Amino acid sequence: MNTRQLQKLLSRFPKQRILVAGDVMLDRFLWGKVSRISPEAPVPVVEVSRESCFPGGAANVARNLRAMGAGVHILGVLGNDSAGEQLREALDQQGVDTDGLIVDADRPTTLKTRIVAHNQQVVRFDHERKEPIAPMIERQLLETFAAHLKDVSAIIFEDYAKGVLSQKVLNHMQRLAHKEGKLTAADPNSRRLLRYSGLTVVTPNRSEAFAAAGVPANEPADEVLRDEMLLQVGKTLLRIWKPENLLITLGEQGMCLFRPREVPHHIPTVAQEVFDVSGAGDTVIAALILALAAGANPVEAAEISNHAAGVVVGKIGTATCSPDELVESFARNRH
To answer: Within a domain: residue 38?
Structure first.
């Protein structure tokens, strides 16, 4: 993609409004250093020097969309707790519309706490409940979804298997979105495979794609377009999910775009250094659907999402990519 086309698409990003529906969470990082092993057990003692918190899960998708200039509505469930208050406040500060965050006093806000020493994650511990949301909360969720639908360009469904997106809820939302002719995207979860139907784009990683296709995971081939198992999985998921576009992310091999009646298109990674892949999938789906909403064709949108992912994996922790960083990445990799 040339610079003129990129700038044209980026100029349209602020005109788009995206609805993100799914499992929101708070990512907490405790940063420090290790100078000794505990005398109590053979584990490192981390001397914590600072703490930071960021929106995670579906909330990180919303954060990424805002960083790229889009207007964002977020739809999800919080607990009546300090983590929920922190998450709502962080999203409010970033300009995300949080009216769709519903408080459920009977479950906690999903909180993931990571201990990081010398830029390496030592351990993570989670506070969460994964059972489906209560019927009353489900009704509120669906009513809020319907109320926001007319105001948005596209919808992203973010399933982290925390109980918000049941098959019933997803089916209802998909039908409403299709009826309104909205662009739709989903990031599936291999631990709880929901059935997607006729979305604009689905963005599994390699392991999620293989799990959804019912194929045992294998070692990737050196050349993506000669990876027979991957190509078969792509073909299978096009048949099962019937998406307009299927983008399988492949880590250091970049990503591969599958479309009905089109040959697969491989996009090599542009990441210079990889410090942390946390949240990279959130960045991919945010950049992809935003680019499509702005008028990019599927290959252009996939290229933009690939560059956005290349930016965020070069940062520590769940991160975002700005339009300026996208321009810099394209310029750096122009060859």
So the answer is: no
Strand ordering across the sheet containing 183-187: 97-104, 71-79, 17-22, 154-158, 183-187, 201-202, 245-249, 255-258, 265-267
Q: Which of 104, 159, 187, 282 is catalytic?
A: 282
Whether 45 maps to a domain, the answer reads: no
| 282 among known catalytic residues | yes
Residue 119 within any structural domain of the chain: no
Does the residue 197 lie in any domain?
A: yes
Total count of domains within the chain = 1
Query: Residue 89 to residues 50, 85, 154: CA-CA distances in angstroms?
Result: 20, 6, 24
List the chain pLDDT tens, one digit each, 335 residues.
Answer: 888 999 999 999 999 999 999 999 999 999 999 989 999 999 889 999 999 999 999 999 999 999 999 999 999 999 999 999 999 999 999 999 999 999 999 999 999 999 999 878 889 999 999 999 999 999 999 999 999 999 999 999 999 999 999 999 999 999 999 999 999 999 888 777 788 889 999 999 999 999 999 999 889 999 999 999 999 999 999 999 999 999 999 988 999 999 999 999 999 988 766 655 666 889 999 999 999 999 999 999 999 999 999 898 887 666 788 999 999 999 988 76
